[in-house]
Amino acid sequence: MKRSALLTQAKRLSVLSFGASALFALAGCDTLNDWLAPDRVNYKAAETAPSLSVPSDLTDISQRYAAPPKVNALGGAAERAVTPAGNATLGVPSAQDPYGMHVEKDGDRRWLVVDGRSPDEIWGPLKEFWEENGFTLKTDAPQTGIMATDWAENRANIPNDWFRNSVGKLLDFAYSSGTRDMFRTQVDRAADGSTDISITHSAMEEVLTGQDKTSSRWEARPRNPQLEAAVLGKLMQKFGLTEDQSKKLIADARPAGAKVAMDPGAGGSTIDLAEPFDRAWRRVGLALDRTNFTVDNRDRDKGIYYVHYSDSMAELKKDGLFGKFFSSNTPKPTRQFLVNVKPKADWVTQIGVVDVNGQPDTSTDAQRIVSLLHAQLN
């Protein structure tokens, strides 16, 4: 059970005095109710709608499948189809996928494939999923297929002790669990008309330092593949499956790996992936999410991911008591890199870093990105 360094200071009477004066200073602020609202984020305890029951007379999946449903006009959400098991699913059921969706995996990485649906049809329900589970979206970009939550504090880690009941009620955000989590969602259109959805978890933890434990630093926590899979399961339930059905699809995830080799002819600055462009494009995006490089934009037609180095610790320094009052929201400029994904042969795709003119980037940072991608893709 960890507390932030501010907790030690907050126990002193000086912090109580500052907290009272801060409340008066914020009395005219429109966001005052937000600061004093009850715990806003507790994603582990969040619940989705009740699982759909399966009628006893519809459990035989050998019967005729329902016809694909029509799509609402003006790009609206698609009408759901009825599966042989009786579910009203967002996907389009088929003999290969009776639930209208399946899960693929590459090592401990998994992603959801929703059959017969475009990213436009899935974007609305996907956005609802994060909002219904208590997350604020920091990135909502359907044109690039990137959706990311803001850093969320898991308030379930905060003990309900006397200090929380006193100071916490006065300034709830002064009492921190010292952990933050965020999720990035990548949505891609596949060549067969389906949509791939991958979810990546990132986490940070505030660790007390020094002999008197009055200072702290933020450290990255390992990504949690089990948590990522659990979130995919919750998403499948949002799309119409029961909990048991979603667990089965995760357990039966289809392998989707391929060999990766450094290209010796390019001085080790590119990667050859033994997959066609469509699959390689998705895997590279997923691999970038596993590194400290954030995808700002994507151009599938040009095969370019626009990325920059993401300093998660710098973002979280603004989460403290004083940071919430005085920090600036203006990000520091960082260099942008262009990760190029292009076909090399029928079943070979080449990955490298290029400059704005499309020429190979031979800088040390570019080679580091290639090495990181090589490690993630293997």
From TrEMBL:
<keyword id="KW-0732">Signal</keyword>
<keyword id="KW-0812">Transmembrane</keyword>
<dbReference type="InterPro" id="IPR042268">
    <property type="entry name" value="BamC_C"/>
</dbReference>
<feature type="signal peptide">
    <location>
        <begin position="1"/>
        <end position="27"/>
    </location>
</feature>
<dbReference type="Pfam" id="PF06804">
    <property type="entry name" value="Lipoprotein_18"/>
</dbReference>
<keyword id="KW-0472">Membrane</keyword>
<dbReference type="InterPro" id="IPR010653">
    <property type="entry name" value="NlpB/DapX"/>
</dbReference>
<protein>
    <submittedName>
        <fullName>FIG002207: Probable transmembrane protein</fullName>
    </submittedName>
</protein>
